[in-house]
Amino acid sequence: MIHVKSLSKNYQIVKRDPGLRGAMKALLKRTYMTKHAVKNIDFDIEQGEMIGYIGANGAGKSTTIKMLCGILTPTDGEITVNSIVPYKDRQKNAKNIGAVFGQRTQLFWDIPVRESYDLLRHIYEVPEEQYKETLALFTEVLNLEPLLAIPVRQLSLGQKMRCELAAAFLHRPKVVYLDEPTIGLDIAVKVRIRQFIKQMNKMWGTTVILTTHDMQDIEEICTRIIIINEGTIIYDGNLQSIQENFGHKRLIHFELEADETIKLPEKLSGIAEIDSYDQEHRKVTLSITSKELSAASIIATMMTEYAIRDLTIADPKIETIVEEIFNRGS
Ligand SMILES: Nc1ncnc2c1ncn2[C@@H]1O[C@H](COP(=O)(O)OP(=O)(O)OP(=O)(O)O)[C@@H](O)[C@H]1O
Ligand SMILES: [Mg+2]
């Protein structure tokens, strides 16, 4: 479905010295700097695969997705999506794809959601019957009924995102790109969105590329992950081996009873480390670095040394995993 070979994207950035003088100088003579956002990447994706495309901020994820959508023209290399070259044949490509950019909207700001959908139906030339059937299904799965009559600008973030997701899948595209679709959402909406994506993939065999900073999204939706770091792919494979290597590296957040100075207990050296410490708010986060002790024993040790008011256990941060794979490889 998707073929990417030796793909690169450079941005030209105008270099400017600070201050007024710099601004004047830049007006007279522009000097450019090249930013290599994506460097020589390769991958092939089969129909129906659900891929997690992950990496730290600025790694090149959105740039890749924009090239796949046909919004950006690559500096170098090949892309085909369903045998179409996206940037050359944007319209034809657009019929096959759906996209959600977590930070943007494709719905029309001032008109009710239902009318945006109707417009999309015309743009994508969806047959009337199919449209009705699809919308009825989405209305049920994403609980859209109360939202359809409301203009997008009056919706909350979670409501808007459910509407966006429906819009992306409305014409039953072969490929859907989801760039941070769960950013800033509460857990209930996240769960609903994950279920929806999985259900669409099952029903229509939709190929999904998902970028996210939430490890839970990846674990629930994707079977394969591609990790990009500073524009280069450093891992492409199944999720399982990542889980085996990093599954134990969870974070434990503690909230302390008293305002005291925290030191890592002797017993935990080499087993956990302090990831962050906010003395003012009495919060400390430990990251588990070794499989030797269970999370339960680490918590027990902390509780013998400090008065703990509350605690939560969280998945490892994607950034941590990326960093470790990167360090291991070089
Ligand atoms: N229009 C642009 N002009 C110049 N540089 C850009 C442009 N868009 C992105 N970049 C740069 O390219 C690099 C990759 O950006 P990109 O948006 O692809 O990152 P990302 O992986 O999506 O990050 P995030 O997780 O923060 O969304 C960054 O260093 C960014 O500053
Ligand atoms: Mg991005």
Offer a few descriptive terms.
four-stranded antiparallel beta sheet, Alpha-Beta Plaits, 330 residues, alpha/beta, binds adenosine-5'-triphosphate, binds magnesium ion, Rossmann fold, six-stranded mixed beta sheet
Description:
With 330 residues, the protein is of the alpha/beta class. It has two domains: 44-244, 3-Layer(aba) Sandwich (Rossmann fold), CATH 3.40.50.300; 248-314, Alpha-Beta Plaits (2-Layer Sandwich). The protein is 36% helix and 28% strand. It has helices at residues 19-28, 61-69, 90-96, 113-123, 128-141, 157-169, 187-204, 215-221, 239-246, 295-305, 318-329, and strands spanning 2-15, 31-45, 50-54, 76-81, 97-101, 175-179, 207-211, 224-229, 232-238, 251-256, 272-278, 283-288, 308-314. The strands form three sheets. A six-stranded mixed β-sheet has the order 5-6-7-3-8-9, with helices on both faces. It has a four-stranded antiparallel β-sheet with strand order 11-12-10-13, covered by helices on one side. The radius of gyration is 23 Å and the shape is globular. It starts with a strand and ends with a helix. The structure holds adenosine-5'-triphosphate (ATP) and magnesium ion.
